[in-house]
Amino acid sequence: VEPTNIVSVNDDMQRVTDEASAMNKRIHYYSRLTSPSDRALIAPDHVLPAPDEIYVYSPLGTAFKVDTCTDGYGKNSSLVTIFMIWNTMMGTSILSIPWGIKQAGFTSGTIHILLMGVLTLYCCYRVVKSREMIPLIDTSNWEFPDVCKYYFGSFGQWSSLLFSMVSLVGAMVVYWVLMSNFLFNTGKFIYNYVHDINVTDIVPGTNGSNKVICPSAASGHPPENQNVIFSSGNTTGFELFEKWWNKSQTVPFYLIALLLPMLNLKSPSFFAKFNVLGTVSVVYLVFLVTVKAAHLGIHLEFNWFTGNEFFVPEFRILFPQLTGVLTLAFFIHNCVITLLQNNRNQENNVRDLSIAYFLVGLTYLYVGVIIFASFPSPPLSKECIEQNFLDNFPSDDIMSFVARIFLLFQMMTVYPLLGYLARVQLLRQFFGNAYPSLFHVLALNLAIVGAGVAMARFYPNIGGIIRYSGATCGLAFVFVYPSLIYMISLHRAGQLMWPALITHIFIIFLGLANLIAQFLL
C-alpha cells in the first residue's frame, strides 16, 4: 500500500470518528433535557440521519429547526452559527425598544444600546470560556448551569434553576400579554370588516392613511374598546361585541381554552416546525418600520436635558428602564455554549459570536431609532410611544394587522415549547421525571397560565415585565456568575491581577445596580 493511500485511509477514519463523537455529544445533550420515556428531545431524527439539521431550544422564547448545509460531519458553518444566535436572541423585546429609547432619551438610549451590547457580549464570551478553564474534567457536554454547579455546588445548581425559571416564566407571561393584545386587535379588525363598520378611536391621533394614535392620552377613558361608530350596522350588536371582546377582561381568558391543552402534551416537538415564523416576523417588522418611516418622515428635536410639549430630553434619569429591557434582549448566556459547540471552526467562535451580537444590536437599534425618529411629533408627543410600539397603530391598519397575525401565530407555537422547557427543568429537578403525572403537570401549567392571565388583566405592561425579569435573570447569568467564575479560575491558577479583579467586581456592581434601579424608577 502506498503511504499516500495510508494517509488517506487514516484521514477518512478520523473524519468518521469526529462525526461519531459530534453525534454522541448531541445525543447526550438532548437526553439530559428530558426523561427516558419521553422521546421529544432524545436523539431526534435530525441528529442521526442528517447532521445538517439541528433544533435549538432557548429559554428566552425561541425554538426552531435550521435546515442548512454543513461540512458533512455534524458541524455548522460560521454563517449558520451566526444566524442561529441571531434568531435565538431576537424576541419580544424588539417591540419595547422604541419605548425604552423614549424613557432614556434619544441620544442616551442609542448609547445604552451600544454599551449594553458590548457589555453582554463580553460576559457571554466569559461564559463560553468558563467551561474551557476547568482542568482534568471532560466538560464537552456541559452547559453554563453545569459550570455553575461545578464552582458553587448545590447553591449554583438551584440558583441557576431559579433564575432560568425566572427567564422562562417571564417570557411566558410576556407572551400571554402580547397574545391577548394581538388576538383582541385581530378580532376587532375582522369583526369591523365583516360587518362593514366604520369606527374611529377616542384617542388623539394623526389624520390620513398612515394614522398614528396615542392610547396613553386617553387615560380618562376605558383603555380597551374606545370607539365611536360613524356609519353602518346595529349599535346593539356592536356594543354586545365590545362587552364580550375586551382586551383585558375577556380575551386573556379565551386563550386558556386554546393553550392549556397544548401545554399538557407530553411532546411539543410538533410546534417546533412552525417557529421559522419567528424569523419571518422579525423581517416583516423591519419592513413595516421602514415603510411607516418613509411615509411619516423624521421628527426630531434635540433638547439635551429639558423636554417640551412634544419632545423628550436627550438624557433622562429613567434610562435603567431601557437597560433592564436590553439585559433580556441580549440574553443568551445560559444556552450559548450549545449553540457554539457545533460550529465547524471552533477558533472562530469569538468572531462569530461578535458578529451575531453586532447584527442583533443593529436590528434593535434600527427598529428603535426609526420608530422613535419617525413618530409624528407634533402633533403627538414622543411620550405617546407605547411599550408595544404596534399599539401606536390603530387596529384597522392593514400592515399592523398582518404583523399581529404573524406574531400571534408564532407565539402560539412557541408558548407550548416554553412550557415544556419549564416543566422539564422544574419537575425533573424535584421528581426526577418531566411528566410524573397529569396532576403535577396540570398544576404547574395552571400556575404559569394563571400568572399570564393575571398580568394581562391587571398589569399588561410588557416593557415593565421584560425589564424586571431581564434584570433579575441577567443579574445571575450575565453579570455575577461569569465574572465570579472567571475570577475564581484566575485565582486558582495564580493569575488573578488587580485590573481583572476591579473590572469584574465593577461588572457585578453594574448588574446589581441595574436590578435595584428597576424598583426605584
Feature tags:
two-stranded antiparallel sheet; 521 residues; 4% strand; 15 helices; Amino acid/polyamine transporter I; mainly alpha; disordered N terminus; lysosome; L-amino acid transmembrane transporter activity; Neutral amino acid transporter 9
Number of DSSP-assigned strands? 4
Strand count, sense and barrel status of the largest sheet are: 2 strands, antiparallel
Can you write the helix and strand succession as a string?
A: HEEHHHHEEHHHHHHHHHH
Report helical residue fraction: 55-70%
CATH architecture level-2 label: Up-down Bundle
**CATH topology tier name:** Amino acid/polyamine transporter I
The separation of the N and C termini measures 77 Å
* Biggest β-sheet: strands ordered side by side in the sheet: 1-2
Count every helix, treating DSSP H or I runs of 4 or more residues as helices.
15
The secondary structure category is mainly alpha
Fourth-tier CATH superfamily name? Amino acid/polyamine transporter I
CATH class (first level) name: Mainly Alpha
In the predicted model, the low-confidence regions spanning at least 5 consecutive residues are 1-61, 63-72, 220-231
When the domains are counted, the total is 1
Beta-strand percent range: under 5%
Shape summary: globular
Q: Give the radius of gyration.
A: 24 Å
Subcellular location: Late endosome membrane; Lysosome membrane
Domain Amino acid transporter transmembrane: 77-189, 259-516
Catalytic activity: L-asparagine(out) = L-asparagine(in); L-leucine(in) = L-leucine(out); L-tyrosine(in) = L-tyrosine(out); L-glutamine(out) = L-glutamine(in)
Membrane topology: Multi-pass membrane protein
